[in-house]
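User: I've been going back and forth on whether these two constructs are worth ordering. Before I decide, could you fold them both?

Assistant: Sure. I'll take them in the order you sent them. The first construct and its structure tokens:
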Amino acid sequence: MNAENQQQQQQQQPRKASRSRRRRQAAKAKKRRVDLWRPVPPLPEVEPIAPTQDPTALLRSLGDPPSPMPGAAEIAIAQVIDKAAGLATALAAAGGLLAQPADEDEDADGEG
């Protein structure tokens, strides 16, 4: 009968472990709950977005990409960056957030 008792105890131990694991997971879940409908502070006023004149300047500042064909890789990455900059400018224009050229001229002159 000792063998049967040992088998029963071994079968019950994993069950106890899984129960306590579930309890711990449930306790963690209760702690993590956040009120999704809580009030949030208002967002700051949005500033106009001025498109960059040279979107690939950062890429060039990093040097040649680690590639067997660095020139080809740089061209491909530059094309992606140019496309992304164009899309960002279009989104800013569609949202009415694009800086007007007059705004840029005043800032460059030191006026305003």
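The second construct, handled the same way:
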Amino acid sequence: MINQTNNVKMVVNLGTKPTIKTVTGGRKMARFSVAAIEPEAETGKKIIKWYSVISWGSVADMAERCLEKGKRVMVCGHLVTKTWTDKKGIERTRKEILATHLVLLHSGTRSTLPNAA
């Protein structure tokens, strides 16, 4: 049975063009933000929630070539938590979505970007 306890699948709008870094060994990492519009529980008023997304390898390559600010995309992956101590000695935590699959959703068409290698 597949473990489904930490899966993320969101249809969102790209908030920023991906920032690309190449790490040792030539592997690429893409980092970008996405915005989800969600109704507020009590009032139903639409609110925007921002999420940070990272991807590696072939998914990062495709993100670099295909993603632009404002595009609608489905992000699939899982949630990761990073913890570190800053220069002042304060422990910090950041949650990000590690994207293993992206699907472009625009102009009534779908373009599937590959799973992470």
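Notes on the second construct follow. The mean pLDDT is 86. The two ends are 22 Å apart (CA to CA).
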